[in-house]
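Run log, item B.
One chain of 336 residues. Sequence copied directly from the ordering sheet:
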Amino acid sequence: MKSRSMRLIQGAAVASTLAASMFAFVGGNVAVAGASSKISVGFVVGAEADPFFQSMYVGASAEAKKLGVNLIWQGDPVDYSPSTQLPIIQQVLAEKPSAMVIAPTDTKALEGVTALSVKEGIPVINVDSGNASQSNIYSWITGFNYQGGEAAAQALASALNYKTACTAAKKCTVAVGVSSLTTSTDAARVSGFEYAVKHSYPNFTLLNAVVSNSQPSKAQAGFATEITADHLAGIFAVDGTDAEGASAAVLASGSAGKGIKVAAYDAYASNEASLKAGILAAVVSQQPTLEGKLAVQAAYDAVKHIKVKHLQLIPNILLTTANCAKLCAKYVYVAS
């Protein structure tokens, strides 16, 4: 089993407890044991190294410090899958936190452990992705993913000069790359993209999705194969790691990649650079720092029995080469 990282943020009110805690080093990371507080929040994400989740951590940790609660942050370093996430959730639940925040890597696979948490009196908040059943979820904070997929289709059509370049006689072939087809975020983005294609851009031909599990190298390999075999016109990279893979595949393909337009999700610093270089045509930026902040606030409210809005949709921001100078500094993800 791979080593996993844990970060614990503790408010000033419990600083003396932190000082007395026992520290254990696992895989080069610091794990804190024995710390206690009135409120503690377990926060489990997917692939922790993903800059999206790193930026989410910035918002979550700042809000935890503000509220004076413990934040137990964990996630598999690189793998985005329910098989790696489930044991991490179980590990955090063993800490008996006051509340749990989970970004599920699958809409159904984690519902059992969610139900167990609620049964034990630990409320659960979903952030980013969500369980298929929301009946026992206190609040769900997420980006407007369906709309983001539609926006990506519009941006890709504009970049390709759809009306003249893509015709019934000569359709434009478009690749799609996702981290997971069974997570709510990617599925909603693909649905929004497909709806826009069906109703507005029928001269796009969509290939079966490349599934990367949040690993840019896997995305790059899949896109490289399709660039060679399918004469791509465009790519929809459904999340940031796939955007990195798409950029690398287009660059490595040389003349074969010339003219391929990429509409992508997630404003990583690396994807901002690709946008400015013209490799990416557009980037749909989420607001992960805000999502992390709101998730910790919702967890705190759940413990305090403060009623909150169940579904909180965070607007997406479309970044392009034309508006990047104005917007990128504000919406590119911050590093933790």
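Observations after the first pass:
- The domain at 5-142+287-313 is CATH 3.40.50.2300 (Rossmann fold).
- The longest helix spans residues 51-67.
Flagged for discussion on Thursday.
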